[in-house]
Amino acid sequence: MTIKNSKTIILVFCCSVLILQGFTPLHAEARIKVNDTTHIVIDSLFRAYLSNDQRIQWSGQETSFGVESALTADVQKTFKSGSIKVFTQLFINQPFDKNILTDEIRARYLRNFKTDTIEIKQLYLQVTRGKITFGLGKHASIFGRDYTVSFSNSFFDYPFIRTEAVLNFETGLFFRYTPGIFNIDIAVTNGSEDRDTNSMKAGMVRIGLHGKNQKWSFGVSAKAQDGIGSEWQKQYKNHLGLDFMGKSGFFQVSGEIIYDEYGFHRDFPIDEIFWKRSYYYRDIFYKYKTPVTGVGGYIDFQYSKTGSKWFLEINYGEYHPKKIGHPYHDDPIRRAILKINVHAAPQLNFFGVGLLENKRKKEPLFKGASDYGILLGLQYRL
After folding, report:
1. Residue 209 lies in a domain
2. What's the CA dihedral at 69, 73, 74, 75 to 10 degrees?
3. Percent helix, strand, coil in the chain (nearest 5)?
4. In this structure, what CATH number is given to the domain that contains residue 305?
5. Domain count within the chain
6. How far apart are CA 48 and CA 174, in angstroms?
7. Among 167, 169, 164, which residue's Cα sits nearest to residue 357?
8. Structural domain of residue 61, as residue ranges?
9. Do the domain assignments include residue 338?
10. For the whole model, what pTM was predicted?
11. Alpha-carbon gap, residue 81 to 77, rounded angstroms
12. DSSP letter string over 221-240?
């Protein structure tokens, strides 16, 4: 065992001991009342975990202890005719050690293992007046509705269409109108999660219905743009989707279905891709200014009882890409996910995640890898 690995294990152990004793390095006041019109809510979350992702067995990074956290701050000020909100969500990640196994082939995927220590996941200003809300900044995407519960800053435990196709966060201008049971969301965004490398903006819309006390919901979404990225590296990222959710007693069922467009506008050499690459060959060229298309979706079941010491989630999804004659791209992707969360002590939970995918044709680099991943850990929330 190397010294650096020993230090990581000691760090995880020490942090776990602190949590079990009722302390957290992210301890902060949860709610602050500034005055009668201004309130601040601060939330902190800490995870220590063991990750074993055999899908990337070829990388040497497949099994690792790790730590991460998430911090949120929500400042709300009410006035006679409405309210102002400033919301911030930061992810704090532990990067991989820099001595990563690499060679001519593995170098194509090197960026996949470079993680920013601090990520701004959300940061926006929002003004609400009656049934109308305006927001500007980085915000959870209005495309679809995602009711799954994640135990990973990297969204390791998310459905395929949410990790590979639909962005979970967008940066831009957001508008919402909520007359009665309807909710109408419109956004103009960069089309990519962070600041843009392309002057063309994406247009997004969702029209939905929701029941009393949010017992059910249904919506239709669309996102359109000529592509993301600089001109010679431009890739399609358009979707048309449908989402739904229903609750009854301790059970909840939800899901999404999308029609998807992706791929390069022009023939772009794969060895020149210097950003994070898809393991599912979505960064691919098919025909000049002709997107690759696909259809996918998932269904999600949750059991959660008030006062219960455990939570269960089962998720199953499929994605069927258009067959374009590429042996590693054309196979459908099937992904099943099981999540269990058990209350261990006040505000402390043990969680376990299992992920299983179907066998598909693999390039020589990926041969020998298995199609499953496991995540086990402790999670403390203020």
Report:
1. yes
2. 180
3. 15, 50, 35
4. 2.40.160.10
5. 2
6. 35
7. 164
8. 1-130+343-382
9. no
10. 0.88
11. 11
12. EEEE-S-BSSGGG-EEEEEE
Residue 20 domain flag: yes
At 198, which amino acid appears?
N
Phi, psi of 111 (to 5 degrees): -65, -25
pLDDT tens per residue across span 239-282: 999 999 999 999 999 999 999 999 999 999 888 898 999 999 99
> Phi and psi of 113, rounded to 5°?
-105, 15
Q: Is 119 helix (H, G, I), strand (E, B) or coil?
A: strand
Say which amino acid occupies 53.
D
What distance in Å separates the CA atoms of residue 255 and residue 300, rounded to the nearest whole number? 6
* Strand-pair partners of 85: 76, 126
Choosing from 326, 357, 374, the residue where a domain stops is: 326
- Residues 119 and 162 both lie in one domain: no
CA dihedral angle for residue 206, residue 207, residue 209, residue 213, rounded to 10 degrees = 40
Each residue's pLDDT tens digit, 321-370: 999 999 999 999 999 999 999 999 989 999 999 999 999 999 999 988 99
Closest of 13, 10, 109 to residue 363, by C-alpha: 109
- What does the block give as tokens for 245? 């959710």
In a domain, 316, yes or no: yes
Distance between CA atoms of residues 297 and 299, nearest Å = 7
Question: Which of 294, 318, 300 has its CA nearest to residue 246?
Answer: 300
Q: Looking at the structure, tell me whether residues 294 and 349 fall in a common domain.
A: no
Asked whether residue 186 falls in the same domain as residue 318, the answer is yes
